[in-house]
Amino acid sequence: MSVFRRPTIEVPVGPVVIGGSGAVVVQSMCDTDTNDIGASVAQIGRLRGVGCRMVRLTTQGPREAESMREIVRRVREAWPDVALVADVHFQPAVALSLAGVVDKVRINPGNYGDPAGGEFTALVDRCRETGTAIRIGVNHGSLSKRIMEQWGDTPAGMVASAMEFLSVCREREFDRVVVSMKASGVRVMVEAYRELVRAMDAEDMHYPLHLGVTEAGSGLDGRVRSAVGIGALLADGIGDTIRVSLTEPPENEIEVARAILQACGLDRSRTEFIACPGCGRTLFELSPVLERIKAAVGHLPGVKIAVMGCIVNGPGEMADADYGYVGAGPGRITLYRGRDVVRRDIPQDEALEALVELLWADGVWTERAE
């Protein structure tokens, strides 16, 4: 089944491209003090190690802007495939000073007042000259006073704010623009993005979108909130880069983001497992068997394996899996390749080895990296 993606322009962000026909980009943000240059660079390295190629750092003042210059120098020397983003609030002069230093500058429209005024147009002109991208990062909780007076703290107000700034970018022939509509409330976030897409489509604008539920929290709550908000939009075909904002080490965000993308059919960088919940028909101990299979074959990217307790939930409901491990009788397993039976009536204590042999024979198996 093909996955629909809303057509957008491509926006180069240093070595990474957001939008167009490319993959949805997973990004994160350092939780280090930007002035602790060593700690920030080390965390960027850890994020790269788990597959993140775009990292944002807070640059709330001139001192952080100077630290950012050294961070950029070190990261480009060590990992030239990582894009760096400066997150700027309240100080437009800091954003202007970092255009041409970082790959993208994230600004909050609520800090600028009139978008046609000198501060924002100066930033746009400088970014056009230097090839720096801009993220127009609208936040539900920090709309400008002027927008609040007219629209209130609403998705419609968020859209109005974004469209003002996008119109200035278009007038000044600057298209290296990404837009976000962050909110801590999932329903507000989803509605704001959907309304923005309708508004952009009406104006024939096709800028890529950065998705995220801000302040999502930690643990199960943070993961569920992020999956619901980001996943709902990805299912609509909306979204070109995502950040899962967890109150945890940022390295934890990447696995969750990849899982969301894979669940939406937009990424196959992980092994995917589907399994029935178990019921009175289940013919083996489903949970421990699933865990053993994950431990044995969970290092194979792009492979989807179904573990089903019986033939009722077997061949039909695992139809889009690459391989199936299905209960066929008490202590007996049948292996499938897609919908086709490969081996029947395998003793359960031999079935995992038989699955590995099948993966090997099909050229799917690779040894686990040490």
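Second entry:
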Amino acid sequence: MAALTGKVALVTGAGHRKGIGHGIARQLIKAGATVVISDLADMQSLQNGVTDLQALGGEAAATLCDVSDKVSFDQALDFVLKQYKKLDVLVNNAGVAVGNEDFLAITDSDWQLSNQVNLMGAVTGCQTVLPFFKQQNSGSIINIASLAGLGAINGIPANYTATKFALVGLSKQLALQYAADNIRVNAVCPGSVVTQMHALTLQSIAESNGVSLQQAQDIENASIPLGYSANPEAIGDAVVFLAGDGASYITGQALPVAGGMAPGL
């Protein structure tokens, strides 16, 4: 029997088929879970993602969800419960990467969007599912933070770092508060991951150092002890572990998934 057979998971920010959210959904499906993916993306994009997931042999569905809107998140939870009568795992993956590595160049809108999605999106998700998890006396919440939520990394905008630190702190506080309800809350902190955003990171490295994109990849690889960037599925493997019974005694942790890459200052 697969590790997550019989469990239902909701993954936010999973609309892009090359993103971390979709990689997480793929690994959850492979582990036997029923998965509902959500995003701001149009429904057709989500349905294409569902088709990909179902091709792996599992049960999947999709619903639109704006994580910054409590009503929208309520509707997403209602969809899951009407469809499957239960929810076991919430993965707060939705996030944005905006801003400027020059602190003084970060705009108010950059700060507002980062806080609204990276932190408050997860807050909204937790506020939405925790009453249900308390009622059923079980549940696992996994917040996708960042290696930049464990240490300041050169070149990463301060607004991004600040919200990811806050997300780690939120995870720890909720883990403490809801442990008596048999609810576990953990964070996963990815390092370099090959997603649709990775090309932008390489472009920034290339421009900063006056090198080619391939040389930029070499520079990044040199900072990773294992020597390469992860695929989104590597983040999914960590989520599967934390969601499963093998991690039943683990809560309040922030797990780096970064190939040994240092978490920064």
